[in-house]
Amino acid sequence: MSRRFLTLVIIGVFLSAALIACEDDGTGAVGPSPVRTGGQDTANVRSKMDLSAGAGFFDAPFPIEHMRRADGTVRYAGFPNPEDNAVLDLYLRQADGMTQGFSRAGSIYLPFEGAIDTSTLPSEFPDSLSEGATIFLVNVQSDSARYGERLAFTAVFQDTAVTHIPKNVLKILPFQGTPMEPEAMYAAVVLATQNDATGKPLAPSIALQTMRDGGIPAGKYGELNAEAFGYLWDYCEDFDIDPTRIAAATVFRTGEFESEMRAIREAFAAWPDPAASDLKVVSEYDTFYVVEG
User: Fold this and answer.
1) Longest Cα pair distance anywhere in the chain, in angstroms?
2) How far is CA 273 from the centre of its chain?
């Protein structure tokens, strides 16, 4: 039990275009194609959401419902480990079969096809709760007492690739100490008015646009996510938010970890206190002794 607890702790810490035309994005879906002027690509930057079985870990947002199996465990095995770090590989393999649901306070990752405007990202927690915020993290479970509650966070855009994370990924870090509700549906949302690095509105991925319009996107996990994103569309209707303003989003269910930690605590508390016997002082210092026995 203690090994599992340690792994969970480590993983917790660690872890609309200007012109519309038809373009195949490789999944059989169609969407906005680039408009070229003087040899330059002027298409709006789109969010990424590949729901196929062979997609990379950061080819879609994380967390997202298809990364949580039916038994509640989370798919961590595909997390990038380009340097074959043995310790990271151990953590990932254990977490892949042991974690139950997504973290209530972990980072959220939203990938894009290009750079976004970073000048208006919430660098301070209160900024993320402002009335004009273009990015928000919200409870979208209608039967929850916290339905519609937005959580504070900071956001950082990764414009260059690092060892484990590719470029053009937005990371949202919730305020530590005010976790999301356990076993509840949450959505992280980026509005088109967050804009790309050139000042143009962001555009939704083909999959997101398809789900917004009531369809099922291409890919093995299209149907599963279409059902999950229904929570977001219902929230938009209830709170008078135009879903066509959304350029990027993810919807996921949080896990419940307190009961397991309580069980571990109670198991340790039930052990008898160790009895000291045959003790002898082996070293003596000014402020402490070393005792053996």
Assistant:
1) 87
2) 42
Instruction: Determine the structural domain holding residue 44 and report its residue range.
Output: 2-292
Nearest CA to 111 out of 41, 57, 185 is that of 57
Whether 290 and 283 have beta carbons less than 8 Å apart is answered as yes
CA distance 1 to 263: 9
The identity of residue 132, as a single letter, is G
What Cα–Cα distance (Å) separates residue 218 from each residue in 28, 211, 244, 247?
A: 7, 10, 20, 18
Number of domains in the chain: 1
pTM tops 0.90, yes or no: no
Task: Please answer whether residues 260 and 218 qualify as being in contact, where contact means their C-beta atoms are separated by less than 8 angstroms.
Answer: no
Report how far residue 133's alpha carbon sits from residue 125's, in angstroms, rounded to the nearest whole number. Answer: 11
pLDDT digits (tens, 9 = 90+) for 166-188: 999 999 999 999 999 999 999 99
